[in-house]
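RECORD TYPE: inverse folding
INPUT: structure tokens
STRUCTURE:
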């Protein structure tokens, strides 16, 4: 991890923990289990939503960062959400919530194994592009695992983005949706604990990188 990336995430994590402790970070459960159907036939299930209360929706023009992941080994894709993406949701949340201009994020897993879609809502395209650059740098060592793409779109909100693309919502099985909501209840405080551990690791990486740079000089 580059020093600049580590420091950017460290600053974001510190702000995010403050937001979590003051209840500004919310995890709405109304959409959990709902299925988003795209015009091309792809369908994605919502397994997490994150919002930042008090963010100024009137500032900036708004922008959506569309982050798509398609893993190479689809036979293992069905288990990937449970063993990687759900835990990563807890760890990663504080690092994007604390980035400048964050408003909202939807986490979605494809009905076809191995596909994932994340929709971030930002105050401006500059905010979205900054996060995309930082996240892209962080994901570089994992390029072998599959394809990841970033697209910044000038829509005011996630809802505007989906409406403009004629995406529709389908209610999922009620029992499955309630099960997803129950699993998600404890996640905000798990996020705090995991993020503090991850923050400590990032600070150590940044410190070692700084020492290497100083020694090289």
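DESIGNED SEQUENCE:
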């Amino acid at each position: 991890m580059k020093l600049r990336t580590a420091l950017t995430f460290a600053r974001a994590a510190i702000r995010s923990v403050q937001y979590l402790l003051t209840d500004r970070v919310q995890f709405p459960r109304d959409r959990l289990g709902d299925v988003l159907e795209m015009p091309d036939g792809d369908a994605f299930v919502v397994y997490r939503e994150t919002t930042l209360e008090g963010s100024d929706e009137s500032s900036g023009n708004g922008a959506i960062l569309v982050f798509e992941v398609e893993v190479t080994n689809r036979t293992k894709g069905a288990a990937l959400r449970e063993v990687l993406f759900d835990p990563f949701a807890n760890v990663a949340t504080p690092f994007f919530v604390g980035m400048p201009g964050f408003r909202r994020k939807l986490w979605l897993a494809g009905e076809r194994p191995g596909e994932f879609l994340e929709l971030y809502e930002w105050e401006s395209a500059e905010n979205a592009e900054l996060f995309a650059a930082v996240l892209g740098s962080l994901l570089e060592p994992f390029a072998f695992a599959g394809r990841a793409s970033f697209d910044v779109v000038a829509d005011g909100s996630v809802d505007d983005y989906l409406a403009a693309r004629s995406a529709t919502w389908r209610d999922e099985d009620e029992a499955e949706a309630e099960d997803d909501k129950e699993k998600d209840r404890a996640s905000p405080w798990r996020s705090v604990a995991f993020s503090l551990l991850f923050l400590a690791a990032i600070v150590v990486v940044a410190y070692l990188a700084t020492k290497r740079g100083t020694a090289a000089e």
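NOTES: The mean pLDDT is 77.
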